[in-house]
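Could someone model iron/sulfur cluster with this protein?
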Amino acid sequence: MNISERILAAHAGKKSVAPGEFINPRVDVVLSNDITAPIAIREFRRIGVKKVFDPKKIVMVADHFVPNKDILSAEQAKEMREFCLEYGVKFYDVGEMGIEHALLPEQGIVLPGDVVIGADSHTCTYGAVGAFATGMGSTDIACAMATGDIWMKVPQNIKFVYHGKLGKWVGGKDLILYTIGQIGVDGALYAAMEFTGEAIDALSVEGRLTMANMAIEAGGKAGLFRVDEKTLAYVKSRAKRKYTVYDSDPDAAYAKVIEYDVSKIEPQVSMPHLPSNARPVSKVGNVKIDQAVIGSCTNGRIEDLRLAAQILKNRKVAKGVRCIVIPGTQQIYLDALKEGLIEIFVKAGAAFSTPTCGPCLGGHMGVLADGERCVSTTNRNFVGRMGSPKSEVYLANPAVAAASDIAGKIVGPDEVLK
Amino acid sequence: MILKGKVYKYGADVNTDVIIPARYLNVSDPAKLAAHCMEDIDKDFLKTVKPGDIIMATSNFGCGSSREHAPIAIKASGVSCVIADTFARIFFRNAINIGLPLLECPDAVKNTKAGDILEVDLARGKIKNITNGQTFTATPYPAFMSELISAGGLVEYTKNKLAEAKA
Ligand code: SF4
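Reply:
Sure, complex below.
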């Protein structure tokens, strides 16, 4: 068996599981947010149970439209707050919250070997720490909050092997954009993606979180990594409970094995309107931008902010470009403060925000007007994703986004550093 | 159950951001969501859709976010079922969980035009194109999913499960 099958078998109380099998695994963490929780709460009440299966295994995070952007979103956050109070569930509210998928690994809430389900498609992020984590809908989350388990079809597994050494300015974001560009937005439909190879071993846990985050953009159910010394170092100081490390058997079966040589990969940019429209930054052409967003659950971690600051230091955001920098969590905010990054951003002419999903989903804090173009470190560039259906989003890594807002058009970092 | 309606046809990768844009997700009321269903991809959809009508698309319908608001909006707009080559997995779960019927049938998609009238026999997975007279058979659901559907969705299924555990 491979990692995902081992985790699922252990949670379903079975010796082994096989792709296509329907199982009912126990869940370790059940997550929802200010968009998906209100429906989950409504459906939970319809089930008619008096309590949740285990308040310690349920997490609610208000991150999409907070600090509340309008009265309606304030009502949604209030509904969550009241539910959490009533059922003894942990609620991450303004002042403590972060973008859920940045927050949960950082706080050691999700750990190796866990089964995590979340009413948010990017729940797959936690595969980076060796958990089987997958996005579901609000009704799934409602039922899991009542019973502690969930129906699931055991997915096929696709193994990705990344050979070679990563080039300059190339990181997890570029590997995953490149991969989606190769296999398409449904290239891993219904499958679990397992990321391996020496280029992956060399990647930081942050870089792996970025990759696992976008497994869903290839249609994947999960995106998993082996637990190595880096993972253990990352989770050791954060874990407040026991966890189990699972690994794939050397002879584990895969539906497909796909290999890439990463040494020739340049920083990637996904053109509108699909993450799979990826191409090297040198082949983007002359694309002027109105806005750059550095943040989100994909690239809002401290490593990402450091990278952006390295390029923005002693430089200025181009005239006519709005640059918005958003740390993923309060801890990242604090780290950025201590490291002097915030000063660099503000002096460069960027806006620095409290943690929020905000512009990533066209919610608030940087919504685009008709005809505007944005280079963004987020994960989706669908029509209307960041605002007007006539706006355009270009996905890139934090170094490319920072360089582009200095140049006023999409360029690689070397273009502005020279 | 027999469903009958006019076909609205779309291409590949119709994502949840165009089915119901995030700017409307500060509410979860089905009727309010339905008022913006498909508006970023098809301005005419809301003007002309009638109860029973059918959405048809090629591959990966419903990709993107996990928002259950997407199948809720489609269902509340009166659409009786969605037929596609393939569906994105979270959308598939969500639709089954809330009782919006989905059928995977590439043959039907290939041989149906926008505006054709279809008759769908859900229990048997039979799709009849009234306009051109052809019939098609959708991929059958796995046994577990049929159970979920006949229970009336996941909440009802869970209620039954909890009641059995108690008994
Ligand atoms: S940052 Fe964007 S992709 Fe991530 S959870 Fe928030 S809205 Fe979703």
